[in-house]
Amino acid sequence: MTALETHGLGKTYRGGVVGIKALSLALPAGEVAGFVGPNGSGKTTTIRLLLDLLRATEGRATLLGLDSRRDSIEVRRRVGFLPGDLAFHGGLGGRETLDFYASLRPSRPPVLRAELLDRLGLDATVLARRVSTYSTGMRRKLGLAIALQHDPALAILDEPTTGLDPLVRRRYHDAIRAWKARGAGRALFLCTHDMLEVEALCDRVLVVREGRLVADRRVEEMKAATDRARSLEDVILSYYATP
Amino acid sequence: MTTLTLVRFQLRRYRALFVAVLCLALVHEATFLFLFQFWKKHAQFSDWIVSILPGRIREGMGIPIHDLTDPRTYKALVMMRPDARALGLVFGIALGTDVIAGEAGRGTADLLFAHPVRRATAVLAGALAMLVHLAALGATMLAGYALLSRLFPMGDRQPSVAAAAPSVALAMAGSAAIGATAFLMGSLCATRGRAIGWTLVFVLVPMVLDFMGIFTSALTGVARLFPEHYYRPHTVLLGIAEPSLPSCLAALAVIGAAAIALSAHLAERRDL
Question: Is the CB of B115 less than 8 angstroms away from the CB of A89?
Fold first, then answer.
């Protein structure tokens, strides 16, 4: 079974700017895919199309066997999402924010919340504070807790560790691995610029450039192409260059 | 279920503004009741718009000066209608422009609408939260009038709370209808700033035309058809509406509901 699949997905914005064009990709259940590409290549556009935040101008996508447009509500009930430009309603506290987002999925209780908060080091004192007083790292941690607290079968994380220090990043990766280990079918679609993160978490790498998928390789395949002079990052970056 | 959650969420988020506007409403009641004590000593007191016209021109145009030392006229023309609508508009614009354009501009839309929330549901919940705020504002204005008029009595012919209620109900319904316009602009515009701007255009342009009505209706003789209604189109409409309050409220409700429905439809179709 595929956790996520797109068929000729495309988005052209008003004014003719092409976001992505005829993008077809698949993420099997149980795998972690690193979705990488240069800035402006269409990664965030793809994610926003998958979650029905943008309306596709061509093609379609299915998540967990459901159509992203027609079954949008059910898709969003089952999927966990962490946006790249993460913003919260500033007047609320951390605990209130967690409760609010959990209450939007009444049929999916936040079974993982306590474990995630513990792993990420978000204690009661921090959660009592207003989110407007949070540092970048604390906001990202809260975002991950919101994305995974209902134990989704598929998680979509957009640049989750950008701007985090190595210690917080490690905790972040541990929390993601712990969630992934809870069930064999859990899939992660990870949009990132961090090749170490790709190496640490991903089973496969999807490279997008100028709105098109230019590579879909398993990480082992890419590692096989490395040598002393050429790291995994170099192999992945070789797909970034325009031929 | 989701609708109620979102209504509670909006009420929580706007709690500070809500309390501030209710306090302002009480201060407004107290101020105007206090000022009436001073103004009623004058034999004649008129609205400033009319009083700035030289007497000869005013008489030539046939514009009368309302005696606002009469508590009923004062209550109807000065205290309740315009300011209650302005206070109500604060809620309409704050909530209406925030639900879609505000969320998108702030960057909170991605997280909110990645949850199982229809944009139409968010619009509906915002509209319900606005109505809750407006109902509380109307009740506060009437309760404030009832209590504060004991401190600053208006004397003989002071309107009862029941007599003031239709004016407040109409003002709140008017605010709700304009608030629905704010929801519509919120669904159409990319940013909250633009949505607020366009909503104000929709409010201010008719207001300017309405003020111009003081002069044009007098010149064209329309004023003579409604001499008791001060010549301005909105006061003429209010004069017609108030005696048939239920049908007027129903008409405003239909207009508001249509604007909210259109707003929900547009919100569903747009990109975030």
Answer: no
Burial of B11 (0-12, 13-18, 19+ CB in 10 A): middle
Q: What is the per-residue pLDDT across A76-123, written as a single tens digit (0 to 9) for each?
A: 999 999 999 899 998 899 999 999 999 999 999 999 999 999 999 899
pLDDT at A9 over 90: yes
Residues of A within 8 A of B9 (CB-CB) are 100
pTM, 2 dp = 0.86
Tell me the three-class secondary structure of chain B, residue by residue.
CHHHHHHHHHHHHCHHHHHHHHHHHHHHHHHHHHHHHHHCCCCCCCCHHHHCCCHHHHHHHCCCCCCCCCHHHHHHHHHHHHHHHHHHHHHHHHHHCHHHHHHHHHCCHHHHHCCCCCHHHHHHHHHHHHHHHHHHHHHHHHHHHHHHHHHCCCCCCCCCHHHHHHHHHHHHHHHHHHHHHHHHHHHHCCCHHHHHHHHHHHHHHHHHHHHHHHHHHHHHCHHHHCHHHCCCHHHHHHHHHHHHHHHHHHHHHHHHHHHHHHHHHHHHHCCC
Chain A residues within an 8 Å CB radius of B190: none
A204-209 and A212-218 as β-strands: parallel, antiparallel, unpaired?
A: antiparallel
**CATH level 3 topology of A2-237:** Rossmann fold (3.40.50)
Instruction: Write out the DSSP string of A36-49.
Output: E-STTSSHHHHHHH
Q: With b meaning 16 or more CB within 10 Å and e meaning fewer, what string describes B250-270? A: eebeebbeebbbbbbebbeeb
Pairing of strands A204-209, A58-63: unpaired
- Given a cut of 90, whether residue A75 has pLDDT beyond it is yes
Percent of chain A with pLDDT over 70: 99
How near does any CA of chain B get to the CA of A103, in Å?
7
Average pLDDT across chain A, whole number: 91
ipTM of the complex: 0.92
Query: Above 80 in pLDDT, residue B227?
Result: no
pLDDT of residue B96: 92
Cβ atoms of B88 and B167 closer than 8 Å: no
Per domain, the residue ranges of chain A are 2-237
Q: Kindly determine whether residue A53 and residue B107, on different chains, have CB atoms separated by under 8 Å.
A: no
B91 vs A49: CA distance, rounded Å: 33
Partner-chain contact A92 B113, CB within 8 Å: no
Determine whether the interchain pair B111/A146 forms a contact, defined as Cβ–Cβ distance below 8 Å. Answer: yes
- Most confident of the ranges A25-29, A183-187, A233-237: A25-29
**Residues of chain B contacting A88 with CB distance shorter than 8 Å:** 108, 111
